[in-house]
Amino acid sequence: MRLLARIWMLLAIVVVSGRTASSQDFRLPDGRGKDLVERHCMRCHDAQKLAGPDGGHWPAFGPGKSPEEWQRVMTFMGTYGLTLTKEEMPIVTAYLTKALAGPARPTGVRMAGPIEATIREWKVTPGTRPHDPAVAPDGAVWYTGQASSRLGRLDSSTGEVRNYPLRPDNTKLPYGVGPHGLVA
Description:
Blueprint: H1 2-23, H2 34-40, H3 47-50, H4 67-78, H5 88-99, E1 130-135, E2 141-145, E3 150-154, E4 161-165, E5 176-178, E6 181-183
Antiparallel strand pairs: 1-2, 2-3, 3-4, 5-6
Helix pairs in contact: 4-5
């Protein structure tokens, strides 16, 4: 069982490392609205997050989104501090739709027959809302607490969770602790 857990952890590290390496060179293309995306969206998210299946790990981001899908993403982000005006919203929607054109993330594949999989879950502090997890070389999983001003560390071998409170010393993003957690 421990061997299987280590194999899955190694696989997760390889996938995360590959995603990061393959998307490091992603740059937003020029166009009307790029400045708004850089000023508003990239206060919290970097270009790689928007890059897509190789760069962004959230299904809400990535290529092939319709204007309506981008509108939903921005409406959701409005609950976390996105400050686009009504006039800027269609400009950003058009820019993201064009700049991140391409095939959408592939749909899942239904497999015939029995499939074996192991899923392991850990309990974290209630209200933490783990966001953007990263696996450290020692196997610990670090995450920002979305909208809770904390940094969390999960020891994947023992299940121990430690929370580190963060003070929002500088609430003017992109510096300090923002609405999604720690930003740099």
